[in-house]
Structures are given as structure tokens and as C-alpha cells.
Design goal:
alpha/beta; globular; 38% helix; four-stranded antiparallel beta sheet
Length: 254
């Protein structure tokens, strides 16, 4: 099986300071991986690097996505290859409706023009699948949205654009229990209809993994993956905390 994403000895710095210092990771088609770690461990740096944020400089290693080395590709080129990032803190864009934004994103990504009527039909079908009210389409992007609505907007965008790898940067951030469950259900519904999509879910709380069951869980600490395992690893982190993994790693290396 060819991997969807292969990362080899990745080192990344910002403003001359190394944040990622040697990540190795392989994600295969259809797999869901969770990347966990405390605040400041390098999780968001990693997601931004994957998407090609210009502030993050790769100093060593490579990122191979769908058999293409993407180290030097711009974000739009990565998106056209099938890479998608759902932001931890989505921006508000007053004056731009959800429908118009998604239509332009779809046009830019797929390089084809479809009529407004056909696009709305396609959009409403996706919204129905995710049980999102059609009135959502006429609202301005994230303007006055609740935390849960912002995250559902990201999932709607993912479902419409159909990437082959979706990087979800803390989709549980700032959500109450009901909103978290709703967002998780949206992700699960989309995954069930698109089993070939790979998902990298970045979080520091195990709660969302009670709904979205990962194939693999990785623990990031000081810019390096120090532990990997199955879904049971998340349960251990819930009981013992991140310090347990750090101490375990230190005992092995001594």
C-alpha cells in the first residue's frame, strides 16, 4: 500500500528557533491518526508546516504527500494535490457568504466552473448529509458564529472539497460537550461516506477520541514524537497525563 503521507526526519524553525526537531510519520489511505501533546509541544507548527505557511522554514527532512515531495510547494498547490487544513481559530470574513466562499474555493481547487444553480444543489446535498440547515449558506463566513458553528463550517468545507488528507487542528478547541459531540458526528458521517480519506486529528484532550476512533495515536513533545500506539494510548493519557509519557521516554533513553 502506498502511503498517503510520509514524513521523514522533519525539522522546522520559525524566526531562527527550531520548533520541530525530527518528526517521522506515515499515514496510509483511509487511516485516522491522532497527534496529541501539551500546549507548546509543536502541534500547530506542524499543521501549518504541512500546509505550507511561509513563516515556517523546513531546515531538514521531507514531506511526501501522494507520492509528491511538497517541501517547496505553495499552499494552493498542496490543496490541489488533496491536502486540507481545518484551522484551530477560523477567521471571520464579514460580507462574504458561506455559499459564495465555498463556490470560489471549489472553483479554484478543481479548476472548473459550474453554474450557480448546480453548485447550490451540490452544496445543499452536502449540508443535508451533515444535517446543517440551508440558512447557514447565506450567513457571512464565521461572522457571529458560535465556536461549534465555526468548526462545523470547517467540516462543511472539507466535505465539499473532498481532500484525500484532512488535517484537523484542534477541532475540539473551545467547544462545550454538546458542540463537541455534534462536530465529531459531522466528521464521522463524512468519513463513513468517504472511507479512503485520511485524517490527522490534532488535539491535546482525549475527549474527542471517544467519538472518533483513531487507528494510531502519537504523542508530540518538544517538537518530536516520543510515543505511538493504538487508541488505548489516548486512554492512558487521560488517566496518567502527558508527564507519564515524558518520564517513560526519559527512562528508556537513560
Amino acid at each position: 500500500m502506498k502511503s498517503r503521507l510520509q514524513i521523514n526526519n522533519l525539522h522546522v524553525e520559525i524566526d531562527g528557533k527550531e520548533i520541530i526537531n525530527g518528526i517521522d510519520l506515515v499515514i496510509n489511505p483511509g487511516e485516522t491518526h491522532a497527534l496529541m501533546g501539551r500546549n507548546g509541544s509543536g502541534k500547530s507548527t506542524f499543521s501549518n508546516t504541512l500546509m505550507g505557511h511561509p513563516a515556517y522554514k523546513i531546515t531538514k527532512g521531507e514531506i511526501v504527500f501522494n507520492d509528491v515531495v511538497i517541501n517547496n510547494l505553495k499552499p494552493d498547490a498542496r490543496a490541489k494535490l488533496g491536502l486540507f487544513l481545518a484551522f484551530q481559530y477560523p477567521l471571520s470574513i464579514p460580507g462574504v457568504t458561506v455559499a459564495n466562499f465555498l463556490r470560489q474555493a471549489n472553483k479554484a481547487l478543481k479548476q472548473n466552473e459550474i453554474s450557480l444553480k448546480d453548485f447550490r444543489k451540490q452544496l445543499y446535498e452536502v449540508m443535508d448529509e451533515l444535517e446543517i440547515d440551508h440558512g447557514f449558506a447565506t450567513r457571512y463566513i464565521n461572522d457571529g458564529f458560535s465556536g461549534g458553528e465555526k468548526k462545523r463550517m470547517e467540516i462543511l468545507q472539507m466535505a465539499l472539497l473532498k481532500p484525500s488528507l484532512a488535517v484537523l487542528d484542534e477541532p475540539d478547541s473551545g467547544l462545550d460537550i454538546d458542540s463537541l459531540k455534534l462536530v465529531a458526528e459531522n466528521i464521522i458521517k463524512y468519513k463513513e461516506k468517504n472511507p479512503e480519506i485520511s485524517i490527522l486529528l490534532i488535539t491535546h484532550y482525549p475527549r474527542i477520541l471517544e467519538y472518533i476512533k483513531p487507528h494510531r495515536v502519537h504523542v508530540l513533545s518538544e517538537g518530536k514524537i516520543i510515543e505511538s500506539g493504538g487508541a488505548e494510548l489516548a486512554h492512558e493519557l487521560e488517566k496518567r497525563g502527558y508527564e507519564w509519557v515524558v518520564e517513560k521516554k526519559m527512562e528508556v533513553t537513560v
